[in-house]
């Protein structure tokens, strides 16, 4: 069994508390997200339109569909900041763009390195059972919740400022809560069906939910990320992370090459869906986009992610451009770290390269690393994450097969599609 000793990022003010399991049948006195409190609570609820639905958001504020979720999330997040619920003020953190071709973004965030508890994580198992005794999101307080997020039933988006949870479409609601150790302004957690206690295991429904959130935010500078176990997920309870960064991620600017594909025999791939491979970037990855609906894209990518999970391949996912692009990074950093194959220079910086770091937003915990940060250092750090070229080609073939596709190559083994694409051309006109 491969394990590594490290410190877990604290995402909730209740993460380090010890609580008794002997709780009353209704209400534990903490106003938590467990079945003892949540079903009888009243919380803000945002109901989104499903695929194909039309119409504006309905709310007492009369804000347009384009900006409402944006304003709601940031307004609620700022309220929690004013109430002192965060472990530090992320707006005080220094940020700079590292000079160079890629424009990696470095942030000095010493707060994420304080008051952590040492833990051990399995890094050789992507799928691990949910453990009720370890910290999970049912234990956080409801004051950390911004709103619940679910689909509407009447083809319109709605916002209900104070609604009984028992009136939700699902008996196990999707929760949007603050990350008390934020990386950026508006850093939140999306926790699908919190009461169902899913481990950190992505599926078709949860990925589609995250993409709906990206679409409803209607802002290309709002991205969602997912880390599997073995790829620096720190809590084994299904969740996505999201925040605003009013600049393109370096990976969004990286060049990529479209992969010419055909449908697997006996399978059907959604029309208009395409896959590209990143070029001249330290982490090898794939970009999925297109399709006629959110479901077309999400189900295709989910098929690939389910394959990676079942085959024990750690990965990170970035949902970009209002849900129109999904970046997939199979990775091996934690495994290499456990095997002692990562350089001491990289380990001493104590950077855990998860989805945000891989995308080019590198959170540094020591001032010396921030002051001396260079493009060469950022490249070296991220290159430790990437699969080798040979291994990546093997995984890519399996991922495409799971997505009902097959790569077309010529006799020399070269992909026949030579179209070069420049990333980060948002398909929406909204901006932060």
From TrEMBL:
<comment type="similarity">
    <text>Belongs to the GDPGP1 family.</text>
</comment>
<keyword id="KW-0808">Transferase</keyword>
<dbReference type="GO" id="GO:0080048">
    <property type="term" value="F:GDP-D-glucose phosphorylase activity"/>
</dbReference>
<keyword id="KW-0547">Nucleotide-binding</keyword>
<dbReference type="Pfam" id="PF26216">
    <property type="entry name" value="GDPGP1_C"/>
</dbReference>
<dbReference type="GO" id="GO:0005085">
    <property type="term" value="F:guanyl-nucleotide exchange factor activity"/>
</dbReference>
<keyword id="KW-0963">Cytoplasm</keyword>
<dbReference type="GO" id="GO:0005737">
    <property type="term" value="C:cytoplasm"/>
</dbReference>
<feature type="domain" description="GDPGP1-like C-terminal">
    <location>
        <begin position="250"/>
        <end position="404"/>
    </location>
</feature>
<keyword id="KW-0344">Guanine-nucleotide releasing factor</keyword>
<keyword id="KW-0378">Hydrolase</keyword>
<dbReference type="GO" id="GO:0000166">
    <property type="term" value="F:nucleotide binding"/>
</dbReference>
<dbReference type="GO" id="GO:0006006">
    <property type="term" value="P:glucose metabolic process"/>
</dbReference>
<dbReference type="InterPro" id="IPR058866">
    <property type="entry name" value="GDPGP1_N"/>
</dbReference>
<dbReference type="InterPro" id="IPR058865">
    <property type="entry name" value="GDPGP1_C"/>
</dbReference>
<dbReference type="InterPro" id="IPR026506">
    <property type="entry name" value="GDPGP"/>
</dbReference>
<protein>
    <recommendedName>
        <fullName>GDP-D-glucose phosphorylase 1</fullName>
        <ecNumber>2.7.7.78</ecNumber>
    </recommendedName>
</protein>
<keyword id="KW-0548">Nucleotidyltransferase</keyword>
<dbReference type="Pfam" id="PF26217">
    <property type="entry name" value="GDPGP1_N"/>
</dbReference>
<feature type="domain" description="GDPGP1-like N-terminal">
    <location>
        <begin position="69"/>
        <end position="243"/>
    </location>
</feature>
<dbReference type="GO" id="GO:0016787">
    <property type="term" value="F:hydrolase activity"/>
</dbReference>
<comment type="function">
    <text>Specific and highly efficient GDP-D-glucose phosphorylase regulating the levels of GDP-D-glucose in cells.</text>
</comment>
């Amino acid at each position: 069994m491969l394990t590594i000793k490290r410190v877990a990022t604290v995402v909730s003010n209740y993460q380090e508390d010890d609580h008794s399991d002997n709780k009353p049948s209704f209400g534990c006195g903490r106003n938590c997200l467990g079945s003892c409190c949540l079903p009888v609570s009243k919380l803000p609820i945002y109901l989104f339109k499903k695929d194909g639905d039309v119409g504006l958001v309905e709310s007492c504020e009369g804000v347009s569909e384009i900006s409402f979720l944006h304003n709601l999330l940031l307004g609620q997040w700022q309220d929690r900041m004013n109430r002192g619920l965060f472990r530090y003020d992320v707006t005080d953190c220094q940020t700079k763009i590292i000079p160079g071709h890629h424009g990696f973004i470095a942030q000095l965030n010493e707060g994420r390195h304080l008051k952590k508890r040492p833990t051990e994580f399995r890094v050789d198992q992507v799928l691990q059972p949910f453990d009720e005794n370890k910290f999970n999101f049912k234990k956080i307080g409801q004051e950390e919740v911004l709103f619940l997020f679910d689909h509407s039933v009447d083809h319109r988006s709605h916002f209900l400022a104070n609604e009984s949870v028992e009136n939700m479409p699902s008996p196990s609601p999707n929760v949007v809560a603050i990350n008390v150790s934020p990386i950026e302004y508006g850093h939140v957690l999306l926790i699908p069906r919190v009461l169902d206690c899913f481990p950190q295991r992505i599926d078709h429904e949860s990925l589609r939910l995250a993409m709906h959130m990206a679409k409803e935010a209607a802002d290309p500078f709002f991205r969602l990320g997912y880390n599997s176990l073995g790829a620096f997920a720190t809590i084994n309870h299904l969740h996505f992370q999201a925040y605003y960064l009013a600049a393109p991620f370096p990976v969004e600017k990286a060049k990529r090459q479209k992969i010419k594909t055909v449908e697997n025999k006996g399978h059907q791939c959604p029309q208009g869906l395409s896959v590209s491979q990143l070029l001249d970037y330290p982490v090898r990855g794939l970009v999925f986009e297109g399709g006629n609906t959110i479901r077309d894209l999400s189900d295709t990518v989910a098929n690939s992610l389910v394959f990676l999970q079942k085959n024990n391949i750690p990965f990170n996912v970035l949902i970009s451009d209002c849900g129109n692009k999904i970046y997939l990074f199979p990775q091996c950093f934690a495994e290499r770290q456990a095997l002692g194959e990562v350089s001491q220079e990289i380990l001493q910086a104590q950077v855990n390269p998860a989805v945000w770091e891989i995308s080019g937003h590198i959170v540094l915990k020591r001032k010396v690393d921030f002051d001396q940060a260079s493009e060469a250092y950022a490249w070296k750090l991220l290159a430790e994450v990437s699969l080798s070229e040979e291994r990546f080609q093997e995984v890519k073939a399996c991922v495409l097969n799971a997505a009902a596709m097959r790569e077309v190559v010529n006799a020399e083994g070269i992909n026949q599609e030579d179209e070069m694409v420049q990333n980060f051309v948002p398909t929406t006109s909204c901006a932060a």
